[in-house]
Amino acid sequence: MPDQNIIPLSGYTDRLSARPGDMVEVRVSSLSLEPYHASLVRVRYADPNPEGPGVRMEEVPTDWEGSYPSREQKFCPGSYGMVERTGSLSGMQSFSVLVTFWPTRPGFGRQTLLAHQEQNRGWSLFLDENGLLTAEIGDSEKLHSLSLENALRKRKWYQAWMVYNDGTSTLSLGRCILDPGLNREDRVESRIGLSFKATDSGQPLMIAARNGIPPCEHFSGKLEAPAVFSRALNLEEIKGFLNGTRYDTPTAKWDFSRDIPTSRIIDTGPEMLEGRLVNSPTRGMTGSSWNGREMCWRHAPEDYGAIHFHEDDIYDFGWETDFTLTIQEDLKSGVYAVKLECEDHRDYVPLFVNPPRGDKKADLCVLVSTFTYAVYGNHARPDFKDSWRYRIRDWNAYPHNPADYRQYGLSTYNFHSDGSGICHASHLRTLMNLRPGYITFGEGRGSGLRHYQADSHLYAWLDEKGFEYDLITDQELHEEGVECLKDYRAVCTGSHPEYHTVQTLDALQGYRDQGGRLLYLGGNGFYWKIAMSPENPKLIEIRRGESGIRAWAAEPGEYYHSFDGSYGGLWRRNGRPPQKLVGVGFFAQGKFEGSYYRRTRESKDPNVSWIFDGIEDEMLGGFGFSGGGAAGFELDRADIRLGTPDNVWVVAQSENHQPSFVLVHEEQLTHITNWPGEEEVKLIRADMVYFQTPGGGAVFSTGSITFCGSLPWNNFDNNISRLLSNVLNRFLSTA
């Protein structure tokens, strides 16, 4: 019987987006003994709600379609460091091992701090199943261990050491706690008459895990300044080395404050035994000496010499490539998927096809928020329950949910098993919520969709109304800048373009200021700042800093990205509120419920009345597949003080929101006052705005995350549909 927590058929690609002529690697795991069949489909509609058109896909002929042999490909969560070239460490007779550490899950299984061990040879320093610091040595015949009494405290800094003296056959183990508010609890124990034999040179030294296939016994917590001496230090020498009053040259000492943006771990010892990190533990973390005087690791790297390892880190499954496809030269830009079929199982691996570089095929560009998709990838909602499963079953929706498959790696909206926030994201794994038919919310009005599936409401509407468009994803925007947008008459977003780098914001700002016409069709957009790994451009980092609606909060002193050293958190706290770009920004949030807009007096102005041509209704969008209304869930409003241009027209405002809606944190000052200084009930609204830019461009923003969900309502015939048609036709005109 297969493991019930393994998806029977799943895959991912090495890239989410590609242009004609590009090669894409497809990686698949299938538990079946039968071959699987692979083909290409274009995803036209990803909403499984039976009250709508239902999930719609079109088969696309390719030369790579066919059968491929099934095989299970495993993935191995847990981050660690590995030093493969161990030099003289492999020939030690006497030795000393020292390390500073901050455990976050003591007592939850055996956890290795440092080890150079194979079978019954070598040494290991670890926490045992009861959270006791333990040293272990082997002599080929058997393993000998020594443990200290009293379990370690959670989230406290310790220094620990183990020493083997070959001359006296003595193993010693010691520790002290560094918290000044507690007794140091220095403890030292020794055992005499123990023999030791070092491992050979082919065995790597491991940091935060024990070597194996796969590595195991992962440590959860921070490690700092591990060092190894090829001799037995006495207690005075150990204490002097640890507190910096005595300097002895170790055989190896890894300084985690160096090369923080990378996966390299630098040895400052004479043999320069450099190592590498696996599964992206978190760097740029406060160490044992951090005292709050500096908040950025670039300014005081000596205080940021810690790496936070987690037993459940996983951002790249590392699967082998099953087959490679080349994007056809004549393939139209759009949303596609590699369809996998085997017996009764199916999977749809997402793929966004861009136009050829420098050769646009339409006047309209739709920006696909792939950074946001990845950041939310495999979000296991805490409120997921059986009633949601029933809706998934009844709607024949995508059947798998991250809440049931947590070992696949969760999103940055979840926590690691030790309670720390997940700050890395990548699409190099199976992302369940990036599939046609996936349901985010299994209750309430409408379809309960977000992100990829919710954005299909827009794509289907564009197809229905005959608007030709190209797709550009965040990845191209980040890498190519404004060049990939500059030739389009109009650029529009989807429902939730939340996460952006400096480069993507600069590109959009440049497009707008050079006369581009920008449509922001969502809510809570341009909100969080992210950074990309300099080594792996598919790895994203988020630091949830000192404000904002947050799934978790970064620890003090850990607000700066490790990848680029820049301050993280909200774009608003980085001096670039969304209002500066699109006129509105995130102000209020509630349950996944929608309401309607009401036209304002300003909407009658001849300069903007064309937006409502053919619309007699004063109330707009009191319907839809997202929460039941065009204005809901997350709402943006205009604010001149935050950068909304003076020449803005607020043409409609939402009203009558449910009691669940509240101001976001950055708007709330105290329990009775807020930052704008206005009555709270009046601030909970979405503003629909239009303004023109000095460079001849224009911006239209809806201020609501549920806006696009109203477009397909009543077979695409409704006042929200008509309104967007008016705006797009004007923006795409040559006038």
Structure, described:
By secondary structure, this protein is mostly beta strands. The protein contains 10 helices and 41 strands. The strands form 6 sheets. It has a 16-stranded antiparallel β-sheet that branches. Strands 26, 28, 29, 31, 35, 36, 37, 38, 39, 40 and 41 form an 11-stranded mixed β-sheet that branches. Helix 5 crosses helix 6 (502-513). It is globular. The relative contact order is 0.12.
End-to-end C-alpha gap: 65 Å
Instruction: Assess the beta-strand content as a share of residues.
Output: 25-35%
Largest sheet properties: 16 strands, antiparallel
Count of discrete alpha- or pi-helical segments spanning 4 or more residues: 10
What's the β-strand tally? 41
Low-confidence stretches: none
Helix content: 10-25%
**Average residue-wise pLDDT:** 95
Topology of this structure?
Elements: E1 9-13, E2 17-18, E3 23-30, E4 36-45, E5 56-60, E6 66-68, E7 80-83, E8 95-103, E9 111-118, E10 121-127, E11 133-139, E12 143-147, E13 158-165, E14 170-177, E15 187-192, E16 205-207, E17 221-229, H1 235-243, E18 252-255, E19 264-267, E20 275-278, E21 282-285, E22 306-309, E23 323-326, E24 334-342, E25 345-353, E26 364-368, H2 370-375, H3 386-394, E27 424-425, H4 451-465, E28 470-473, H5 474-480, E29 490-493, E30 499-500, H6 502-513, E31 517-520, E32 528-529, E33 531-532, E34 540-541, H7 578-582, E35 585-599, E36 619-620, E37 631-637, E38 649-655, E39 662-663, H8 680-683, E40 687-692, E41 698-701, H9 713-716, H10 719-732
Parallel strand pairs: 2-25, 26-28, 26-29, 29-31, 30-32, 31-41
Antiparallel strand pairs: 1-3, 3-23, 4-5, 4-6, 4-24, 7-16, 7-20, 8-13, 8-17, 9-10, 9-16, 10-11, 11-12, 13-14, 14-15, 17-18, 17-22, 18-19, 19-20, 21-22, 24-25, 27-34, 33-34, 35-36, 35-37, 35-38, 35-39, 38-40, 40-41
